[in-house]
Amino acid sequence: MKVLLKNCSIIDTIYDYKNSNDIMIEDGKISEISRSIYSKADKIVDIDGRVVVPGLIDMHCHLREPGFEYKETIKTGTLAAAKGGYTTVCCMPNTNPVIDNIVDLENLKRIIKKDSVIDTIPIGAVTKNQNGNETVDLKTMADYGVRLFSDDGNPIWNDLIMEECLNFSKKEDILIIDHCEDMGLTAGGVINEGEISREMNLKGISNLSEAKPIIRNIMLAKKTNAPVHIAHVSTAESLEAIEEAKEKGIKVTCEVTPHHISLSENDIVKDNTDFKVNPPLRSKEDVAALQHGLRDGIIDVIATDHAPHSGQDKAGDFYKAANGISGIEIAFSVCFTYLVRTGLLTLKELLRLMSLNPSNLLKLNKGRIYIGGAADLAVIDLYKEFEVKKSDFVSKGKNTPFHGKNLWGEIIMTISGGNIVYEKGEVYGVYR
User: Fold this and answer.
1) If DSSP states are collapsed to H, E and C, what string results for 27-86?
2) Strands of 102-172, DSSP E
3) Positive or negative: CA dihedral 270, 235, 295, 352
């Protein structure tokens, strides 16, 4: 099938495209980019000067299936991702059963093949049942194509297991992603430790609980000379340790979430558990540090940590409600509003964090717009302001602290592998 996109304002992560361009898509690839294309196509869409960018890549989300289909499924989660401009996502293994063996991995791959509307990459567990006690058969899982391993939701608390995994990662060219949390320090905590936790009379979670295991990972990465990736960094202290490690040449990379660079503990609405997340929303000073970490290149990737829950999961008070924010379909808009419109980053810099950099870490050869490249694209109306309404979410998870807030930069079309997998109404000048 041939799809022709007319009058595109292309913003790429590497190349500079001047003026409006047309893009021809054929057999899932970009076959031509030029000022004017008049070739016949099965479908012609006039983008009308809106921005066309590389499809976003999320290296950290929770799609819940198998086992928790009442929260999310591969189908609803990838539809939500497509609505957010994502063309590739990596799903965490904390499902039921946990993805810690070949049988369950193959079952998940069958579901993905049947139901996913975009590229979906399974992440394997590091330890059996993610209990931290016994390493999975990493070699067999890697031989079956698993390149990412994580116990996300739980930390890899055993030092020997972490060292073993890092040594293995060097030989098999895999990446270990660690959820850094000292469970002894966070036990019973529900929001950030500080003035707000005291005002609300809620047990707090200290910054040290995150920084301490990050420092351990950095030391092990140095010892093994192996790469390690730190999930959802949320504190200034964590960032300081990562920056120092990078300056020493230690192979550490990290990610931050849209909610941690935009919301602080001061935004928490009392009794609204949609604000409960792990790691918690931190102080304004931490948010500022993360924003500067993005600007200064210390943070490598923006990942959503999309964590959909049912209303029942979020019912009750902060002690009873589940951790997590559903955010994959508004992630770009949150980042564009809080980072680009404020002048902290350029759009190209943001796209590198949300597309090119994760592609490079995952070795996907994506995150760019070029002739011969994959036709993974998102079309964005940068000048469209909209109100976030949880009822509009495609995801089964409506648990968003952004409900009622206004954001800028709306995704109006997503193309994955040459297929239009999301479009917001008939908003184009020419369409056939």
Assistant:
1) CCEEEEEECCCCCCCCEEEECCCCEEEECEEEEEECCCCCCCCCCCCHHHHHHHHHHCCE
2) 119-122, 148-150
3) negative
Q: Which residues, listed in sequence order, are joined to residue 240 by a DSSP beta bridge? A: none
* Termini Cα distance of the chain: 13
Contact (CB, 8 A) for 146 and 174: yes
Sign of the alpha-carbon dihedral angle for 128, 142, 227, 15: negative
Residue 305 annotated to the active site = yes
3-class secondary structure, 133: coil
| Digit-coded pLDDT (tens) for 278-324 | 999 999 999 999 999 999 999 999 999 999 999 999 999 999 999 99
User: How many other C-beta atoms are found inside a 10 Å radius of the C-beta of residue 225?
Assistant: 12
The model's pLDDT over 207-266, given as tens digits with 9 standing for 90+, comes to 999 999 999 999 999 999 999 999 999 999 999 999 999 999 999 999 999 999 999 999
One-letter amino acid for residue 135 of the chain: T
Q: Which two tokens stand for residue 40?
A: 């016949």
Q: Which residues pair with 178 in a beta bridge?
A: 230
pLDDT at 432 over 60: no
- In angstroms, the CA 158 to CA 411 distance is 42
66 cis-preceded (ω within 30 degrees of 0): yes
What topology is assigned to 55-362 in CATH? TIM Barrel (3.20.20)
Q: Domain locations in the chain?
A: 2-52+374-393+406-423, 55-362
> How many Å apart are CA 131 and CA 49, to the nearest integer?
51
| Token duo for residue 337 | 């509003």
Give me the CATH topology for the region 2-52+374-393+406-423.
Answer: Urease, subunit C; domain 1 (2.30.40)
CA torsion angle 248 251 255 256 (round to 10)? -20
For residue 381 the two structure tokens come to 């109306």
What's the whole-model pTM score?
0.97
pLDDT at 415 over 80: yes
Given 305, 313, 376, 381, the catalytic residue: 305
Q: What sign results for the dihedral spanned by CA atoms 46, 51, 54, 60? A: negative
- Residues 6+ positions from 218 with CB-CB distance below 8 Å: 228, 241, 242, 245, 250, 252
